[in-house]
## 1
Amino acid sequence: MKKSSTARTAARPTRQRILDAALTLFNERGPDHVTTAEIARAVEINEGNLYYHFRTKEALVLALFAQFEADALAIVGKIDGADEGAAATYAGFLRLWFSLVWDYRFLFRDLVGLVSSAPALVEPVRTISAAMRLAVGDIVARMEKAGLAAIPEEERPAVLTNLWIVSTYWASYLNLQEGITEFGPPQLDWGLKQVSSLFRPYLSPEAKAELEVLLVGEP
C-alpha cells in the first residue's frame, strides 16, 4: 500500500520540513512579513522545536541560500557529460536556471532588504555569483566551440555580465522598478525573453530555433 502524502511529509526530517515551509511562505509574502510562529504552524510543530533547528529567521534565510547554492551548482554539473554540440543542452540549462531562480525568488526579489537584515548573506551571495559567472562564461565558450554562438572578443565581457545580471536579478528589477509584488508565469516568461534578447544576435540558426522553443514552452 502506498503511503499517503501526509505520511510522506511527516517522514521527512523536521529541519527540511521547516525549510520547505519557510521557502513557500517567504516566496509568497517575503521574510519580513512571515513570523516564526507561522512557519511553525505550517510544519505543525511548536516554536521551541523550530528554534532548536534555527535560532533566528536569519539562520533560516542562510540555510535556504545554502540550499539554493547547492542546487545551482548541481545545474551547472548537468552540462558535464551532456551533448555539448546540441543547442537543446544549453536551452535546457537556461530553463533549469530560470526555474531555480523562480523556486527561490524571494532571495532575488527581496535581496536589498535581505542583505540589510541578514548581513552574513553578503559573502555567500558574492561567492556564488562569482562561481556562476565563471560557469556562464564556460558554457558560452562551449557553445562557441560547437558553432552555436559567436560573440566578438571585444563584446564578450559586457555580454557575459549582462547575461548574469538579467538572468539572476530580473525578479528584483520587477519588484523594485515596476512595483510588482505578485510573481507568476508571466513574470517568468518576461525574464526569459529579456535574457534571450541578449543572446539572440550571437546565436546560430539552430540555437535560435531552440531558443524559440524555450520561449513558447515544450512542443
## 2
Amino acid sequence: MVFARDTRRSLAAAVDLVNTLPVTDVDRVDRLVTPDDLRAYLADHPYTGSFTRDQAEVDAVRAIRPRLRGLWVTDREGAVPLVNAMLRDANALPQLVIHEGYDWHIHATGDDEGLATRILVETAMAFVDIIRSDEYDRLRVCAADDCLSVYVDYSKNGSKRYCDTGNCGNRMNVNAYRRRKAAETT
C-alpha cells in the first residue's frame, strides 16, 4: 500500500487528533484542551495558513474530532457520504500547490479558512485516496479491549491489531500469556 506523502501526513495528523480524545475506558483524559495543547499538536503536524491559537480555535478543532473519528468506525461505503459532506461543507476546490519544502500536493481550501476547516478538508482528501485505492480495511480501532485509539495499518500484510498510543499490544499479549498460564495450572 503506497500513498502519496501528503496523504500519509494527513492521515497521521488525523490519527493524532482523534487520539486526543480519551483513549481508554479507564483513561478519560482529553489531550486537547488548551492553546498549549494545540500548539504541541501543530508542532508535530504543521498546517499552512492563518492561526489564532486561541481558545476559540482550540474549541473549533476539538469539535471536529468526533466527525473525524466517525471515519474509523464505518466501512468504505459509509465513509463516502461523510467525506463528501466534509468537502461540501468547506466548498473545497482541490488545487496542486508547492511550498515550504513540500513537493507538489493538494490543497482544497484557502489559507484564510479556519484551522478546523483546513484539517477536515485535508483529512477528507486523504480519505478520498483511501476509498479510491480500496484500502479502507487499513483503518482500524485498537483491538485492545480497553482502548479506543485509532490507527492506520501500514504493515505489509495488514495484520496490525493494536495502536501505538499506549502499550496496548504488549499489555494484551501479557494478559493472554497470564490467561494461558492460569489455564495450565487449573
## 3
Amino acid sequence: MSKAEAWLGYLPSYYHDVREIKAIARAEGAELDKLAQELEDQVDQYYPETATWALSRFEQDLNIPVNLSKPIEQRRSVIISKMRGSGKVSASMLKNVAQAYERGSIEVSVQPAEYKVTIHFRDTLGIPPNLSDLKSAIEEIKPAHMAVDYALRYLTIAEVEGMTFEEISATTQDRLLGGGA
C-alpha cells in the first residue's frame, strides 16, 4: 500500500471520491514515500554492512585510511574485519577477520611449533580481489612472532580436463596457477 492510500485511509470515506482530496493525498503520499526512503537510508548508515556514504566515518573512527577510489564492498570488508579483529588472537578470530574479506569458505590452521598460521581459501579460485587489505588486517592483529601463509586455490589439471570448451573459454587466466598473477 502506498503512503497516499494509507493517508486516504485515515480520512472519512466520503472524502475518498473527492478529486481535490485525492490530489492532496498523492502529493502528500509522494513526500511521505521520500521521507520513508530517507529514514531507511539514515538507518542503513549505522551498520557497516549497509552503509554507503557514511563508510568514511567508520574508517576515520577505526583509523583506516579513507580511499574513495576503492569499491564500497572492499571498504566495508576492511571496516568489518577491523571491528572483528579486537581481543585475544585465536584461529577463530583470524578466520572471522578473513571471512569479512572473502565470501567463500576459509579455513585457518595454526602450527604453533612452527610459529605459523595458514589461511586456506577453499572456494575462491585465483587471487582474491581484496587480498592486500586482508594481509594488512591480519598483519595488524597477529602476534609479531607468527608468520602467515596464504594458500590460494587454482583449477587443477583434472578439473580443467573435465571442462567443456565453452567452460574453458569462459575461464579467466587468473584462475589457473601462474596465469595472470
## 4
Amino acid sequence: MNTPTLRRTLTTAGAAAGAAALLLSAATGASAHVGVTPDKTAANSYALLTFGIPHGCEESGTTKVAITLPAELNDAQPTVNPNWTVEKVTEQLAEPKKLADGTSITKRTSQIVYMAKAPLAHDLRDALVLSLKLPDAAGTTLYFPTLQTCETGQTDWSEIAKDGQDPHSLKAPAPSITITEAASTGGHGAAASTSASTSHSTEQASAVTDSGAQARSWAGLAAGVGGLALGGVALARSGAKRKQEAGTPGQ
C-alpha cells in the first residue's frame, strides 16, 4: 500500500473511531440521567411513560423517587413494580377546572411517589411506568421534575433549559416529552388504506388469473405441437407401409 493510500485509510479510521467515541459518550451521559420514554406522543391519546432510574447519588442507593406531574395533566395511573410501593399525592386547585366533557374537578394528582422496598444499588437501574392521557396540545413540551432520594443525599432532576440554552448543558435536566399532532382516525385514512388493500388484492388476483391463462395457453400450444409431431410420425409410418405393400407383388 502506497503512502497516500495508507494516510487516507488511517484518517478515515480515526474519524470513525472519533465518531464512535462521541456516540458512546452521549449514550453514557444520557443513561446517567432520570429520563422518560413514551410509547406514544400523539395529542389526546393514552400513553405509557417509562421513567428510567439510573445510579443513585454518587455511590448511594436510591430509596425514593417522586415524579411531579405538569399542570396540563390531571391524573396518572402508576404501574405496579414489585420492588417499590407507590402512592398518589393530590392537590386542591385554586379554582375548579373544567374538563372537555363539561364536568369540573377541584383536585388533581400532582405527584406519583415510589418508595423502594430495598435501596436500589448505585450500579443497577430500574424502570417506573405511568399510564396517562396526554392533553390536546400538539407542540407542547411536558416536564416531569423528579426528585431522586438516596440513602445519602438526593438529586433533583428539575432543570429546564431557557430560551437559546443547550439542554445537554444541564447537569440535572427534568424528564420531558413533546406532544405531537393527533393521529388521524377512520375517515380518509381508513378509506385510503382499504382502497390500497383492495387494489393490491385485485392486482394479485389479476396476476394469478393472467398467469393461469398464460400457463393454459402455453399448455395448449405444447399439446398442439405434440399432436402435430405425433401426427407426422404416424403419417410417415403409414406412407412407408403403403410403399412396402405396393412393392410386395413385384418381388
